């Protein structure tokens, strides 16, 4: 297939480019506002913004794409609360620009990176696709709105989509070529590894009095390579002529903050320097996915569910970053 990957210079998008580059024709479109040019390891690269309608028209006119994958959203929850305009403009309006270009050029297959944040405070866990959608921050709201737009575009224009709702994306390319690279970094595993490597100060643990076995929050961590495999399965699903759908993606079993910290210590053979912090507002005690629908319908099966394996891949990348 000929696939356009928007946001292909970012964390998950760059891993997706690598996954597809040897089997499909890939074009990356990225404005490098958060991604890195050197992270794009194959295919064609176009620099530009989804806000530029003329650029989109040119890219689609020249590309003749079979499908589009979207990884170009801003993802920081706290920033979305402080700067909602930035998030609605990019995550919602720019995505609509992209969808309009797809409709104009007859491209009818779209795989969208959605998020567990659309569910807000969980009413039950594990969270399945029937869970109410009730986002509690602008980031989650923009993703939920795009999902609604996609349902409307399917009815009106026949644009078929798969929405993949990630829980906690983590890990790095098992070969060490790519990894997680955010600035600022907000994810637990890279923060813990950077605290060990000395690239930043101690890790803050936000609360130890949650209703969990060890008192720290539990999250469902899903390896970035497994997320890419889910995208491949979604692409195949759309290629078969199947209907639009949405799937939750996670391991189905959570790990607590304390368990992650202990695993980082084991893998690196170094204790993680810790600062004890108070609870953060809006942090649920547990966020765990029910991914049985994706497993049953898409045939998706995560390969890297072991926490030490996830961290060992991320540690390989962190050691590489430490030497740059």
Largest sheet strand order: 3-2-1-4-5-6-11
The end-to-end distance, rounded to whole angstroms, is 35 Å
Proper CATH architecture of the largest domain: 3-Layer(aba) Sandwich
The total strand number stands at 14
Number of helices: 10
Radius of gyration: 19 Å
Structural class: alpha/beta
User: Spans with pLDDT under 50 lasting ≥5 residues?
Assistant: none
What features would you describe in this structure?
This protein has about 325 residues and is an alpha/beta fold. The protein has 2 domains: about 200 residues, NAD(P)-binding Rossmann-like Domain (Rossmann fold); about 100 residues, UDP-galactose 4-epimerase, domain 1. About 40% of the residues lie in helices and about 20% in strands. It contains 10 helices and 14 strands. A 7-stranded parallel β-sheet has the order 3-2-1-4-5-6-11, sandwiched between helices. It has a 3-stranded mixed β-sheet with strand order 12-9-14. Helix 1 links the parallel strand 1 and strand 2. Helix 2 packs parallel to helix 4. The radius of gyration is 19 Å and the shape is globular. About 45% of the residues are buried.
